[in-house]
Write a structure and sequence with these properties.
heterodimer; A: 113 residues; mainly beta; six-stranded mixed β-sheet; five-stranded antiparallel β-sheet; 11 strands; globular; B: 114 residues; seven-stranded mixed β-sheet; four-stranded antiparallel β-sheet; 47% strand
């Protein structure tokens, strides 16, 4: 079983829809949680970074962490065609081991006009 | 500011050949990383360096070597390429290598080993 599970999609939604992207994890040592966005043939770019359980909002994006359920989510409000990309969750434990990030496999999102 | 540059952008390589992927950052970050990205497997850490002069092994280090002679450069070498090393390779860097660091990624090198 992978440490981080993420539905690969593809997920297709109409413009303006609310998008929910999710990851589950099995390693209770994970303390830091990130969402990266990756456009086709580009490197991943950090979108959201959270540490504690709860919600963190940044514009149209909300990251949610539930450590008790080992479940994280990214919500995108008023989705735009420019949001079409692959979204990768990533997480890691305390300092050490090269600050290894464990990534989900990514969910491909397409927002259609 | 360019951030992280990687070269080449793509490469087709015969099995058994030696290949060095280049990575340079201009952000004066102390920590640098090499990942490979494969369909269905996501991004996996190959090697890392927390500061110039030091390196460490990641999740999938076999068949790869790295060096960190200075802050800016972190080349990845495949001594004798094999087809299973066909992948997209990403270099990343972060300020100091601690848990709260943000890792910034380069544009990637697409490598095909035949």
């Amino acid at each position: 079983q992978k440490e981080v599970e993420q539905d690969p999609g593809p997920l297709s939604v109409p413009e303006g829809a609310i998008v929910s992207l999710n990851c589950t994890y099995s390693n209770s040592a994970f303390q830091y949680f990130m969402w990266y966005r990756q456009y086709s043939r580009k490197g991943p770019e950090l979108l959201m970074y959270t540490y504690s359980s709860g919600n963190k909002e940044d514009g149209r994006f909300t990251a949610q962490v539930d450590k008790s359920s080992k479940y994280i989510s990214l919500f995108i409000r008023d989705s735009q065609p420019s949001d079409s990309a692959t979204y990768l969750c990533a997480m890691r434990g305390p300092t050490g081991g090269g600050n290894k990030l464990t990534f989900g496999t990514g969910t491909q999102l397409k927002v259609e006009l | 500011i360019a951030g992280i540059t990687q070269a080449p952008t793509s490469q087709i390589l015969a099995a058994g050949r030696r290949m060095t992927l280049r990575c340079t950052q201009d952000m004066r970050h102390n920590a640098m990383y090499w990942y490979r990205q494969d369909l269905g497997l996501g991004l996996r850490l190959i090697h890392y360096s927390n500061t110039a002069g030091t390196t460490g092994k990641g999740e999938v280090p076999d068949g790869y070597s790295v060096s960190r002679a200075n802050t800016d450069d972190f080349p990845l070498t495949l001594a004798s390429a094999v087809p299973s090393q066909t992948s997209v390779y990403f270099c990343a860097s972060s300020v100091s290598g601690v848990s709260t660091d943000t890792q910034y990624f380069g544009p990637g090198t697409r490598l095909t080993v035949l």
